[in-house]
Amino acid sequence: MKRISKTIAETNSSAFKQKALCWAQQFNEVVFLESNSASQVSHQQYSNYDAVLAIGAQSSITTGYKNAFKKLKNFQNKHKDFLFGHLNYDLKNDIEDLSSSHKDLIGFPDLYFFQPKKLFLWKNKQVEMLYLPDFKSEMEPDLQAIKNTTLQKITGDHPPEIQSKISKESYFKKVSNILEHIHRGDIYEVNFCQEFYAKNALVDPVKVFHKLNEISQAPFASFVKLQDKFLLCSSPERFAKKKDNKIIVQPIKGTARRIDNIKEDQLLAKTLSNDPKERAENIMIVDLIRNDLSKCAEKGSVKVEELCQVYSFKQVHQLISTVSCQAKKNTHVVDIIKDLFPMGSMTGAPKISAMKIIEEEEETKRGLYSGAVGYFTPEGDFDFNVVIRSILYNASNHYASFSVGSAITSLSQIEKEYEECLLKAKALRHALGS
Fold this sequence. Notes:
The chain is an alpha+beta fold and 434 residues long.
């Protein structure tokens, strides 16, 4: 179905984007993707748009994990259009003989995608409006409504009381258990996560997202509204992207804090680059992803374009690698995602063993956390992030949640792993006003 296009020049793109997101809250389905101009070179060279806003479901698919990828394939075959949505971490249960037994108080479905009625694409200081033909007459009124939207100042709302699902003592015990698995040779690495949560939380999702984005300015930030459920995401990590026949995966493993002193900050970045433990955890995941890509790649085409490169964000320094391949001819785009899912940086290696240990030791159903948000194009390309550095909120039961984790390897020191979790939680706490 061919969309109706209208392009406008926007001299103040940031304000227009904020107004557009506020205006979009009247819809039950909203996905906003913000690259923050993809300031990191590794991300910029693969960036399609500066930002994207998709709203209103013309058609949609929502399902639990059973046969989820098969259902998504059928949906994508039927609707050769832009499709936006999310993949919960627990879709692992559709791929392997695994289960998820913990409670989920947020309630995002395991898989949801929709064909948006209205689409906004920001690129090169222009905004392209792409509407389905039935909504052509609404383009100009919508544009005027957005321009007339009044932005509210971000004020310090009453902060929710944030609690930890796992005590520090319990965290130490659980990581000790994981290290025993590693020393026995059961696994090499596990990404172990813990949840922080607030009950009876009154959260303004748009305000909190803008505050979080201001703090982090991440290249894969996203705002998702699905009826009463919200994702406020400041992810620095790409899960996977397909452009033409090329697939790109960009895992993050390795973290160091940032400080104001320029020389000392540069030293922290250099130390991260040379840290044996941080490099080892990144390289193990690169090897895992190379193996995952081999399932859908042309023989001999998998290559590591960049290994353990330091990239600096507002809050942290990160080690990022870029792995790519050429997809086998006639491989379905959904099968590519299934071959790669979930992102290896959020599981560990070997993947299946790591996911079993995660289920044993973690105390929260991950749900959308460590899953992916993104879109398919009409041509069958895609781009998805990894849902990390994110706040999840259910506006009906007033439950707010965020999880943070780190890679546990044989070189891990439990106290440092715990401190890394607190470092990653800092921006999320601040965005909630805590």
